[in-house]
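Support request, please re-run this one:
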Amino acid sequence: MTASSVKQQLLAEHSPPLASEKSGSQTVEIPAGRGEPAKTVTLHDEYAWIRGKNWPSSRIDEPEILEYLEAENTYCKDFLASLKDHQDKFFETLKGRIKLADTTIEVKKGDYVYYSRTYEEKQYSVDCRRQGPNAEEEIILDRNALAEGKKFSKVLGSVVSSNHKLMGYKSDYVGDEAYKLQFQKLDGSKEFLKEEMENVGGFCFHEALTVPKENEEPVVDAAADPVGVFYSVRNAQLRPTKIFYHKFGTPVSEDPLVFESKNDMFTVSCYRSSDKRFALMNYHSKTEVEVRALDLMAFDSGKTLAEQLAVVRPLSDNIEYSADHGGNAWFLKTKEGCSREHFRILIKRDGVDADFRVLLDEHPELCLNSSFLLTKNRFALSFLSTKNGQPRLLEFTHSQAADAGSKPLTVEDGVLLKFPGVDPEATSHDAVFSGASSYTEDRLVAAVDTPVRPTEWFLLQYHIFCGYILLVGILEPTDSIVCNLLVLLIESRNVHSRYDFTTSSAPTLVKQKEVPNFNPELYATERVYVQYQEDRVAALHPSEEAVNGDAKPAEAASVQIPVTLLYKKDALQRDGSMPLLLNGYGSYGIAEEPIWSNLDTLYADLGFVVATAHIRGGGDLGEPWYQAAKFLKKKRTFLDFIACADYLADKKWTSKGNIAICGGSAGGMLVGACLNMRPDLFRAVVAHVPFVTVLDTMLDGELPLTPGEFKEWGNPRDSGFFDYMRSYCPYENVAGVFERSDNFPNIFATAGLTDYRVGYYEAAKWIARLRKEVAKTKSSKPKNFKEPLIVFETNMAAGHAGASGRFDRLKEKSRDVAFLATEFGLLE
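Re-run finished. Output below.
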């Protein structure tokens, strides 16, 4: 039986599960403000019972809930079973484009190199090391062994002490991210320390420091064992709110509290500075940060650890910053003093500067993106263009920072990195500084991707020779910069001389992601820009309409949305006949990077144009792009996405009703909201762990993420927010949705039972309400209604990220492909 016939049979038999309706409501008191009077609102929810009474603090054990989820799973499996042959084929295609036995780029740490590898038929990676280039490989963490007999296994990357004798790692075998922290000796014994910590967020080692020579910066004493560990712990609401210190060899029960957040909107984390001198405690909300530092060179046993913490920069309203120390200086990436919702870099040199000063001011067209990266002699910065979203990577030297004095550096003082075959303006690409970089080895590694070119890693390494810092591996021998350096070498005899690094340079390739059965010449990528006139009445709360958004390019009435396109060259037809898959996210300032994707390549093989919409609310064009679509401006995210779909249809990349949309988590909210607004545009929807009950979630301050999310979405108990949030919440706008299109899209949705980020019940309630609306519409239009197929699956053994094994994840992806290929008639 074909997939189409199974679909028709499922619909004809009227067999979709229908959740029982139960009376449920909550009353919300909203104060006056933002042009609205005070009011009392009652919110009804007939499916509130689907959320377990003790979720997420305990497992779901209510029989009625489990029976409903299993009924949905059975209905879904009945349909997916008809796709099994196609799903198996797509799985093998995806698997065939992975180098099954592979290694990551190596990271040098002292005498060792560390890396991970995969084995051909194993699900999980293995962490390894070698002591020297020709030494025998040592396996230090085998995730496959740890995963044996478990349905779910997530073991996060190992952290090895600087003396290479102790390893810490976190494990989660349920999917709820309640990690256990364990330590294992790497002295050949493989012995575990008896100390274990539960429900850990993050951790960092405390190691003894020494000063090699007078006036040199402290370094970790490589001969000494780690002293202890700082670690954060989640509270009953699963929020990391406390940081403890554990001294190895003492009972965990006696670990002193170092820092605690007592504000529900703030959480904590801990990390080491790049030079390893400081343990840093990060106290942060979505919009503010305060970092406290513990100087490990001045560790005072006579004081409590809390008493020894020093505030790097005091907490200030709506000022985010990140802090690091290296090169005998503090560096801050901060919004302090910025006028464009950008960031700038401040510096305070040890023993020189009394306070922070501006090292690199905000740029009108470039926004600092990720946090800066330090090595012993350099600092590296990542920017995004606020005009087109293209990345820019620059590097500077610490000597430049020292020589700058009171005069800030500019971007023109740095080395702008260029990558072979990538046009920085025209090629849709992603470029980042890699975690393979190393402070102590003075090693910078950058990675670049395009949708038709798998990841390449490039090395930018300095060597000190006769007291001079020389660039190695990024310049041709005839490069003018080398000439400038040689002139400086002859004339100045000064390691701190200021270099003219304004010339762009191409790094040296050190590793390329190998992709079997892939020929990049068969595919093409384009970056197009969707310009449309914003309807501010539809997009904004009335209190925001009066604000002059045109002063900010990201909030202009006529805005341009970048879209990255991928297609197979011999399949392209610009006549509107091609199916199009439109991906998006648009929240939390997270960018949808235009990278090579095994999955997208498979969709292109099937005949799809694959489009990624770089919509507002994401960080695709920097911080202003994110800020332009949050709080009472959130609907811009959805209207941008719809504008992209309309544009691509109008320009004949596809046609209306021939588009699939896909999103996960907040991207699931995106596709759910757009489905309600413009169902006529779409033919199929895939929504993974969709955040579709945003109003209900934000009304419940006891949920794990809600208090922190008030600074993302707003608090619906505050004036103005309730009605605005309700107007875009997918769950609240299902009524009448099937009246808006004669050919309503088919839907495939998923959830994870142990997902504490987006509760399983969000998707379950959404699907239940959609099914109720289907039944209602069928009753009112028995002859004219074309019923959509709605299938929903809950992974009963996984959380937010789905399956944990790499092959299991491929099977989930191949299921999506089979669903969409069926919907667009690409299988039969």
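The radius of gyration is 28 Å. Confidence is low (pLDDT under 50) at residues 463-503.
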